[in-house]
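4.2 Preliminary Data

To establish feasibility before requesting continued support, the project team ran the inverse folding procedure on a target of 131 residues. The structure was first converted into the token representation described in Section 3, and no sequence information of any kind was made available to the design step. The complete token record follows.
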């Protein structure tokens, strides 16, 4: 079971991500509303993965990504972004992000990006949930 830190300034996005990650069999260790909180919570919980919004107040997702990767070079951070932020996504990938998802997020997108980031993990898929 993966321990995941969910980071997004939108409470609704955080709630939806936590629900979907739970359906995939992940454990949510903490959630943050900005990049500064993400850096602090990463140090406290050392999660297996982070879903990180790109645009947030106080500290952006890219700034938080760079700060976390400075101290934890093996951190698995998956960026969450909106259409039209391609340049920011490229910056995030160059800075060490392991993948990205475009909003709106659904269980299929989430499953796909987590399977790519963790190829040896078994995730519950949306098809299995329907059985």
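Position-by-position output of the design step:
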């Amino acid at each position: 079971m993966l321990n995941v830190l969910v980071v997004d300034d939108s409470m609704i996005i955080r709630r939806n991500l936590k629900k979907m990650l739970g359906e995939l069999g992940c454990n949510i260790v903490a959630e943050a509303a900005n990049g500064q909180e993400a850096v602090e919570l990463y140090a406290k919980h050392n999660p297996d993965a982070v879903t990180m919004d790109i645009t947030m107040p106080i500290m952006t997702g890219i700034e938080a990504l760079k700060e976390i990767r400075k101290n934890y070079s093996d951190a698995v951070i998956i960026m969450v972004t909106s259409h039209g932020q391609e340049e920011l996504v490229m910056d995030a990938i160059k800075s060490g992000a392991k993948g990205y998802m475009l909003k709106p997020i659904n269980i299929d997108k989430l499953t796909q990006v987590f399977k790519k980031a963790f190829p040896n993990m078994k995730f519950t898929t949306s098809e299995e949930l329907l059985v």
